């Protein structure tokens, strides 16, 4: 059984969720959106046995990418993000000075190793996932769609999606930050690309608690009534 380890590490000034994923059959792990809570992330990593780290970012805003340079330098991790997020990354230092929060004062723009392609199946460290491009909060916002085995003998599995700042429990991402477009585009993309997934799909957002597609279709005030399927 290819069991997936999934750890959530919230922290930093904006209480951003960093995710650690690893197959128990692999010494490689995926670090999604390493924020400024590097000490908390390191503590979670200390429980795991690994030889390499692959950083995959949903987008390039400061609170989601601040820690990337740290892990690149310490662990020789590779950094992957959508090409449309380059201007967002390059604005990290400007954003840091605008917020005026001390923990972001030494922000370093991370070096990119490869660009994430949308609507593509990837395999990293024995973990398979599909990428979905869901613009609105930023132009290159990517969601990572995994299927996790629960009991292969009975064919039990669950779908989960790490969705960055596109949709939250009871809310959606802002569109007034660097690279944001407009609410109409964001809501339209969420409706077409996320609300059409299995209702049982667990959504792991960039901030706040997990939720499901079913819950957001029924009760998210930004999305309820938009889905006609």
Explain how this protein is built.
The structure is a single chain. With 229 residues, this protein is an alpha/beta fold. It has one domain: Ribonuclease Z/Hydroxyacylglutathione hydrolase-like (Metallo-beta-lactamase, Chain A), CATH 3.60.15.10. The protein is 22% helix and 31% strand. It is built from seven helices and 14 strands. A six-stranded mixed sheet has the order 1-2-3-4-5-6, with helices on one face. A six-stranded mixed sheet has the order 7-8-9-10-13-14. Strands 11-12 form a two-stranded antiparallel sheet. The longest helix has 11 residues, at 183-193. The radius of gyration is 17 Å and the shape is globular. The mean pLDDT is 93.
Give the number of helices: 7
- Largest sheet, if any? 6 strands, mixed
Hey, roughly how much beta strand do the residues contain? 25-35%
What's the N-to-C terminus distance?
A: 34 Å
Question: What does the oligomeric state look like here?
Answer: single chain
SSE sequence, one letter per element: EEEHEHHEHHEEEEEEEHEEH
At CATH level 2, the architecture is 4-Layer Sandwich
Break the fold down into its secondary structure elements and pairings.
Elements: E1 4-11, E2 16-23, E3 28-32, H1 38-45, E4 52-56, H2 62-65, H3 68-75, E5 78-81, H4 86-90, H5 92-99, E6 114-115, E7 121-124, E8 127-133, E9 142-151, E10 156-164, E11 167-168, E12 171-172, H6 183-193, E13 202-205, E14 211-212, H7 213-219
């Amino acid at each position: 059984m290819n069991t997936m380890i999934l750890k959530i590490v919230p922290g930093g000034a904006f209480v951003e969720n960093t995710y650690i994923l690893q197959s128990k059959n692999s010494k490689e792990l995926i670090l999604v959106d390493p924020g400024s809570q590097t000490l908390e992330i390191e503590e979670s990593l200390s429980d795991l046995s690994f030889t390499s780290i692959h950083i995959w970012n949903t987008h390039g805003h400061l609170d989601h990418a601040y820690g990337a340079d740290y892990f690149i330098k310490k662990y020789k991790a590779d950094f992957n993000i959508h090409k449309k997020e380059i201007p967002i990354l390059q604005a990290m230092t400007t954003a840091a000075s605008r917020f005026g929060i001390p923990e972001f004062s030494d922000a370093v723009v991370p070096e990119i190793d490869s660009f994430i392609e949308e609507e593509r199946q990837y395999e990293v460290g024995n973990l398979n996932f599909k990428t979905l491009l869901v613009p609105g909060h930023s132009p290159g916002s990517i969601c990572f769609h995994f299927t996790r085995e629960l009991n292969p003998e009975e064919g039990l599995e669950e779908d989960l999606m790490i969705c960055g700042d596109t949709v939250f429990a009871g809310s959606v991402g802002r569109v007034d930050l660097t690279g944001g477009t407009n609410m109409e585009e964001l809501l339209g993309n969420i409706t077409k690309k996320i609300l059409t997934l299995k209702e049982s799909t667990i959504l792991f957002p960039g901030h706040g608690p997990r939720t499901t597609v079913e819950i957001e279709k029924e009760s998210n005030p930004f999305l309820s009534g938009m889905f006609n399927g």
